[in-house]
Amino acid sequence: MKLFETELVRGLLFALLVSGAGCAELGRYDITVNDVMVYEPAAPYRVGGIEDSALADCLTQSLLDIDAQAATDLVALNCSDAGIQSLAGLEQFSLIRSMKLSNNDIRNLLVLERLTALRQLWLDDNDVVDPIPVLRMTNLEELYLAGNPRLQCPDPEDVPHHLSLNLPDHCLR
User: Fold this and answer.
1) Residue 51 to residue 96: CA distance in whole angstroms
2) 21 pLDDT more than 60
3) Residue numbers of the domain that contains 15
């Protein structure tokens, strides 16, 4: 019975500490009672498998900002003006719904096809040439490609009817 009472006291103490007003930050600390660990926060998710260091840095910061525990915790990403050239490895973040990659040096979009949850994608002011990989994405609702001077303008037949598409000026003539 003594062990049960000790566990109950620990649990109640932890619940009181974490749920108390102004104690939201306690979830970031180890909590011990009589030198016994009663709570240890999960380690933050660590980015791996990303070739481009600028993309890895942006992802790391984004995951820290939301206190992510898994790659699937990331649903929105803003890596504009980051100097990104490659998106290799990004497919592990499979639940991203909104991604802003404006003003980078991105050319190859093949990896984005694997991000099936993606709804909004900003690729304006990059070095995109072939938009077909992202035009094949059935769930994509908004796509921004303006400012890609070498973009091969898509045939209107290749653009899904539900997609709101923003193209560079040379495609609008």
Assistant:
1) 19
2) no
3) 2-39
